[in-house]
User: Which sequence fits this backbone?
């Protein structure tokens, strides 16, 4: 039912056409059964015209089923595609801090596994509607043959359906538990890939990971899933047995109480035998539909936790920035190693365009959290972060964020550098590929990088190139030079920062490289969540090293 609602929202007209053609296919199929039964009783009196009628019914069955199948297939896949895009758009609009709380593993499980499960269920909808039409038409034909036999058939179908209710609920419960465990499995797979180096170097940790985490979760998932599908297997085979029992009742029991002719019984058994296949297909679809129902519930639950900010997402060019102001900004978060909460702030500082500002501090002092606050990815719990006293990170967060280009320690590199084939941007990019010594490995074709299969240091240099081409008013670099060779580290501090400063950009650099602190216009130190101004080393100017 949920799948039909999902498809109906897409286009009720297309769904109506597909349903009507499916019913037409069912009626035509029942007509074929009636005609076959009639032809068997008057075999010696058949005319050529009867063959034409038969051929027309066969053609009607084929054409109506093709139209219904294709219509529903296109409609169903369009609905699933809309759902994927809706989820992806909502994920992008969800605040970064909220996404961190949800976890990558849950998001990936929904976007991959749950949408795939729903897609498989949608592919069954054409089969369900056509088979439903066939069953209704066959029941109508059975009623035309004998109302008492129709009543007996309907009674057995109702009793069979009632007997399926309790096992189906048990099966859904097991499948729901298995789906919850799949979130844990995705998290374990994330650890398996992200921590492969650590697991290979540390055998006890590897043993613990497999024996205490991955193995128990995987085995419990298998048990729950097999239990649910096994219940479905029992139900399906019992359903098939019911119809063969029905044939046995008509052959061996009903004649003792009802006057039945041979032709009536022949027609009845033909109709029942013809119904068994569509009924079997309907029942075999039940497990897939059950899993799809669980997946839909999971998606709805996740959507309820993704609180998208109500923002105007119109395309615009970031304006020139004169200052970035923090007023009494605070942010509290949980730190595992201290088993408690850490409060950053209150922080009040004004950063101006054309400045290169270094932020230094020990591990765990809150530097990266401050970077996320300054760029608008985190919103302060109290206080305010503003650009030029006008654009607030809290009130107009999307607009605020578009003024920043940042490279964080856990950066992600995209192939696309810019749209189209802008000659000026291409030339700038090629020049910097040479300076960064990447021109022999990477080329730019139609605004895209030809490869990302590089070392971590090389990928970071490409991220620097991408950020440079963004040409945003504000730049933030979080420990960019930490894993670079001395040559590239020197190039970054003396050439890149000098160029951005000369272009009037506000540049914020989080760094431990105290040898380069003298190149900054200002040095800020962050200790225990408190920010303070620190004196600069004497005698070194940024321009002097460029």
Assistant:
């Amino acid at each position: 039912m949920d799948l039909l609602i999902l498809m109906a929202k897409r286009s009720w007209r297309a769904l109506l056409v597909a349903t009507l053609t499916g019913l037409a296919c069912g009626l035509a199929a029942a007509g074929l059964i009636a005609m076959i039964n009639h032809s068997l009783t008057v075999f010696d009196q058949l005319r050529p015209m009867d063959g034409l009628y038969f051929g027309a019914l066969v053609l009607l069955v084929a054409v109506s089923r093709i139209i219904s199948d294709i219509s529903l297939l296109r409609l169903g896949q369009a609905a699933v595609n809309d759902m994927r895009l809706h989820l992806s758009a909502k994920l992008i609009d969800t605040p970064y801090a909220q996404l961190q709380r949800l976890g990558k593993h849950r998001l990936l499980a929904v976007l991959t596994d749950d949408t795939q499960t729903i897609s498989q269920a949608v592919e069954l909808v054409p089969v369900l509607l056509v088979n439903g039409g066939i069953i209704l038409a066959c029941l109508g034909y059975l009623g035309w043959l004998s109302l008492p036999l129709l009543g007996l058939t309907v009674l057995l179908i109702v009793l069979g359906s009632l007997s399926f209710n309790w096992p189906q609920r048990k099966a859904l419960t097991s499948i729901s538990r298995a789906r919850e465990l799949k979130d844990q499995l995705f998290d374990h797979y994330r650890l398996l890939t992200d921590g492969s180096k650590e697991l290979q170097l540390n055998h006890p940790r590897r043993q613990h990971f497999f024996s205490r985490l991955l193995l128990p979760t995987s085995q419990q998932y298998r048990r729950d899933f097999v239990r649910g599908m096994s219940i479905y297997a029992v139900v399906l085979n019992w359903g098939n047995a019911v119809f063969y029992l029905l044939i046995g009742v008509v052959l061996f029991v009903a004649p003792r109480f009802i006057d039945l002719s041979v032709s009536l019984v022949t027609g009845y058994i033909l109709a029942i035998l013809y119904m068994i296949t569509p009924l079997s297909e309907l029942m075999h679809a039940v497990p897939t539909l059950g899993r799809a129902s669980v997946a839909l519930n999971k998606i709805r639950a996740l959507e309820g936790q993704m609180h998208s900010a109500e923002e105007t997402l119109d395309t615009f060019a970031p304006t020139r920035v004169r200052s970035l102001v923090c007023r009494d900004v605070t942010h509290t978060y949980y730190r595992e190693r201290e088993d408690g909460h850490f409060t950053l702030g209150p922080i009040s500082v004004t950063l101006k365009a054309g400045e290169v500002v270094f932020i230094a501090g020990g591990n765990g002092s809150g530097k990266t959290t401050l970077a996320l606050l300054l760029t608008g990815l985190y919103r302060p719990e109290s206080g305010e972060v503003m650009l030029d006293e006008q654009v607030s990170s809290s009130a107009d967060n999307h607009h605020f964020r578009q003024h920043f280009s940042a490279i964080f320690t856990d950066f992600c590199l995209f192939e696309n550098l810019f749209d189209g084939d802008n000659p000026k941007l291409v030339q700038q990019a090629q020049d910097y590929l040479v300076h960064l010594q990447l021109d022999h490995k990477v080329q730019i074709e139609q605004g895209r990088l030809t490869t990302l299969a590089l070392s971590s240091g090389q990928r970071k240099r490409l991220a620097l190139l991408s950020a440079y081409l963004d040409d945003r008013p504000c730049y933030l670099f979080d420990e960019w030079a930490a894993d670079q060779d001395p040559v590239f580290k020197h190039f970054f501090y003396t050439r890149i920062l000098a160029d951005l400063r000369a272009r009037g950009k506000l540049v914020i650099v989080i760094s431990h490289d105290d040898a380069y602190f003298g190149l900054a216009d200002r040095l800020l130190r962050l200790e225990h969540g408190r920010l303070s101004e620190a004196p600069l080393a004497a005698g070194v100017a940024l321009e002097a090293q460029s």
Observations:
- The radius of gyration is 34 Å.
- The first strand starts at residue 323 and ends at 335.
- Residues 2-305 form a domain with the ABC transporter transmembrane region fold fold (CATH 1.20.1560.10).
- Residues 538-546 have pLDDT under 50 and may be disordered.
